[in-house]
Specification:
Blueprint (H helix, E strand, L loop, with lengths): L5 H12 L22 E2 L10 H17 L3 H4 L12 H8 L6 E3 L3 H12 L8 E5 L4 H13 L4 H4 E4 L10 H11 L3 E7 L11 H10 L3 E5 L18 E4 L14 E4 L55 H17 L1 H19 L6 E3 L12 E5 L3 H13 L2 E2 L1 E3 L3 E4 L8 H15 L4
Parallel strand pairs: 1-11, 3-4, 3-5, 5-6, 6-7
Antiparallel strand pairs: 2-8, 7-8, 9-10, 10-13, 12-13
Helix pairs in contact: 1-13, 2-10, 4-10, 5-6, 8-9, 11-13
Length: 437
């Protein structure tokens, strides 16, 4: 450990020994290389590790399918028809929502389209959508296609707010200023809770207030937020949000996604299925029908209460079971304790990276409130040297990821990463930079 120092390693191990969340690491499958050596896994921002209980829950559902067949819909130990309800309380706790405002369903981009069908209602001058420049490609594709679906031109009606010249980050004040100038033309603000490339965490409540002040609706992509940063979607008056569950929520590759719809948009429904704030605006399917009469198979759609009314299909049980296992771990750990450890882990990593400046530049905000557990790094010299450093890190057993054009993303996750992992990353990065890897 000469590149970082034995004293630093000892300090990390002491912090790990005192960590009240240390035993949660034992509840995950920890990846190893082809020789069976442990990897330094710092990639939970892309795919979370497998909770050991996930295998048990999936096998239980496979056994139910084998033994009960179709009767499992109503008589499995966790009946399949209302299976999504098993996920509700955990998601509500993590998102700061009322239980009826959240539902697990589909995938992120499918949910984005379903939400935009309700919330993007261009009319007259107010027809544009505001997103951040450099948004995640799937979001941009979906948003542009929604604009085109309404017969409008994404070239004119998709507004992209970029950082100031020479900057990597977009300040909330810049969003407010832009809305003050253009808000009358904007129907919807679509913004990330955490920007995927830079790791910047935004003040969701502030952005929602600014949008509403100018007559715009506010929706959020929480793919990099949920399970990572504290959320208070109800109190923040967010109109709607969607997320995936395979990153910090550890739901497995392609896991079932989720969405939030504020209760002011999901009040009591007349039998027409119309609601006051969103008259007739829904792409309906049978699982959004009220549960008590769903299987009468009537022609008329009677919307369920709350966010459930946006469901279109029955839940994929084998894809939902791993998320149920993970949500149990979040409930046991508590988001407050996870956030406290996250701030400590990223602060420790930042401390260890400081001696490497300016060869290593941290582009993620330094204020803990403006970031989650992801730190995004840029290596001096541009994309070529940066990619070579990233490739060398992988050869040393470090799993992080590379984002074009020149970013290495590193995320120590509170549920399963240790302070020692942070030291190992800093040690190996230092050796790679010194050319001794």
């Amino acid at each position: 450990m000469s590149a970082v120092g034995a004293e630093v390693l000892a300090r990390a191990r002491a912090r790990d020994a005192a960590d009240p969340l240390r035993t949660f690491r034992e509840r995950f499958a920890l990846p190893v290389d082809e020789r069976g050596a442990p990897l330094v896994y710092l990639c939970g921002h892309s795919l979370g590790l497998q909770p050991l209980a996930a295998r048990e829950l999936v096998i239980e559902e496979l056994d139910e399918w084998a033994q009960r067949a179709v009767e499992g819909h109503e008589h499995a130990r966790r009946p399949w028809v209302p299976y999504h309800e098993n996920l509700r309380s955990g998601l509500a706790a993590l998102t700061g929502s009322h239980p009826g405002e959240v539902v697990a369903m589909n995938s992120l981009t499918v949910n984005l389209h379903l939400m935009f069908a309700s919330f993007y209602r261009p009319a007259g001058e107010r027809r544009r959508i505001l997103i951040e420049a450099g948004a995640f490609s799937s979001d941009r594709h979906a948003v542009a296609s929604q604009i085109a679906w309404h017969g409008l031109d994404p070239h004119d009606d998709l507004l992209e707010l970029a950082p100031a010249a020479g900057a990597d980050l977009i300040e909330e004040q810049a969003i407010e200023t832009f809305l003050a100038e253009h808000g009358r033309e904007i129907a919807l603000v679509w913004w990330p809770g955490v920007q995927f490339r830079t790791g910047q965490a935004f003040d969701i409540a502030r952005i929602a207030r600014a949008a509403h002040a100018h007559g715009c609706l506010a929706g959020f992509d929480l793919a990099h937020s949920v399970g990572n940063t504290p959320l208070a979607l109800h109190d923040s008056a967010v109109d709607f949000a969607v997320w995936c569950s395979y990153k910090y929520l550890n739901g497995g590759p392609g896991a079932i996604g989720g969405c939030f719809v504020h209760e002011r948009h999901t009040g009591a429904l007349p039998k027409s299925g119309h609601r006051g704030a969103l008259p007739g605006a829904r792409l309906a399917g049978w699982w959004g029908h009220e549960a008590d009469t769903r299987f009468l198979m009537e022609a008329q759609f009677h919307a369920a209460e709350g966010a459930d009314s946006w469901q279109v299909s029955n839940p994929p049980i084998l894809a939902a079971a791993p998320l149920l296992a993970s949500l149990g771990l979040f409930g046991a750990a508590g988001m407050a304790r996870l956030r406290e450890k996250s701030v400590a882990l990223t602060g420790f990593l930042e401390e260890l990276l400081a001696p490497l400046e300016p060869r290593v530049q941290l582009i993620t905000p330094r204020e803990p409130a403006a970031r989650g557990c992801q730190l995004s790094l840029r290596i001096a010299g541009g994309a070529g040297p940066g990619k070579r450093v990233f490739d060398h890190l992988r050869q040393t057993g470090v799993v992080c990821d590379w984002r074009t054009p020149d970013i290495i993303r590193v995320a120590p996750v509170s549920l399963y990463n240790r302070f020692e992992d942070v030291v190992q990353f800093a040690e190996r990065l230092t050796r790679v930079l010194w050319g001794s890897a």
